[in-house]
Amino acid sequence: MSDPRPEFCFSDSPSMEDIRRLQSRFAAERDWNQFHQPRNLLLALVGEVGELAELFQWRGEVSEGLPDWTPSQKESLRHELSDVLIYLLELAEKCHVDLPRAVLTKMELNAKKYPVDRVQGSAKKYTEYGEEEQASSGGPQQGPG
Ligand SMILES: Nc1ccn([C@H]2C[C@H](O)[C@@H](COP(=O)(O)OP(=O)(O)OP(=O)(O)O)O2)c(=O)n1
Questions:
Q1: 14 CA from centroid of ligand 1 (Å)
Q2: At 110, phi and psi to the nearest 5?
Q3: SS3 64
Q4: Is there an atom of ligand 1 within 6 Å of 83 CB?
Q5: What are the C-alpha distances in Å from 100 to residues 16, 82, 84, 136?
Q6: Which atom of ligand 1 is nearest to the CA of 90?
Q7: What is the DSSP letter of 7?
Q8: 53/128 Cα distance (integer angstroms)
Q9: Where does residue 60 fall: left (phi above 0), alpha (psi -120 to 50 degrees), or beta otherwise?
Q10: C-alpha span between 134 and 119 (Å, rounded)
Q11: Contact between 141 and 135 (Cβ < 8 Å)
Q12: How many alpha carbons lie under 13 Å from residue 69 in its C-beta half-sphere?
C-alpha cells in the first residue's frame, strides 16, 4: 500500500529518510522499480556526478559560496547535487543499507583514523602518517634497492 502522507509536507529541512521515502514513492508510482536495480542506480548516480563535474569543468578553482556564478548556474548546481543525493539514497535502499546509520559509523571510524591532535592542519592521507613517524624516529625507511 502506498504511503498515505501527502507528498511534500516537510519543513525547510527534510531528513534523509524523508527524501528516501519520496524517491521510493516516485519510482513505485511510475512502475520504475523494474529499472531501479542496484547496478542501474549506480550508473545513474555516476552519470549525475558527471553532470555535476561538468558545471565545474574548465573553470579553475572556485571560491567558497561560488561568488562568480550566475543564478542560473547556481540553480543547475542545486539540481545536480540533488540528483546525486536522490540516486545515492535509492541505491543504498536497494542494497539494504541504512545510509544514515552507516554514515554515522563511518564518521566514527574517520575520527579514529584521523585523531585531531595528530593531523591538525594537515591534509595527508592516514597511510602517510606512519611513514613520517618512522622517518623522524630513525626507524625503517623505504628507499630504492
Ligand atoms: N528513470 C528515472 C529517471 C529520472 N529519475 C529522477 C531521479 C533524478 O533526480 C532525475 C533524473 O532525471 P533525468 O534522467 O531526466 O536527468 P536530469 O534531471 O539530470 O536531466 P538532464 O539530463 O536533461 O540534465 O529524475 C528517476 O528516479 N528515474
A1: 20
A2: -60, -45
A3: coil
A4: yes
A5: 7, 17, 16, 40
A6: 27
A7: S
A8: 28
A9: left
A10: 16
A11: yes
A12: 18
* Cα gap 75→127, rounded to integer Å: 38
Cα gap 22→28, rounded to integer Å = 10
Rg of the chain taking only CA atoms, in angstroms: 21
Task: Say if residues 87 and 48 touch (Cβ distance below 8 Å).
Answer: yes
CB atoms within 10 A of CB 119: 14
45 alpha carbon – ligand 1 mean position (Å): 10
Q: In b/e form, how buried is each residue of 44-55, taking b as 16+ CB within 10 angstroms?
A: bbeebbeebeeb
Grid cell listed for 16: 534523509
| pLDDT, one tens digit for every residue, the chain (145 residues) | 445 555 666 667 999 999 999 999 999 999 999 999 999 999 999 999 999 999 999 999 999 999 999 999 999 999 999 999 999 999 999 999 999 999 999 999 999 999 999 999 988 888 888 766 666 666 554 444 3
What is the dihedral sign for C-alpha 57, 61, 62, 64? Answer: positive
State if residue 32 touches ligand 1 by the CB under 6 angstroms criterion: yes
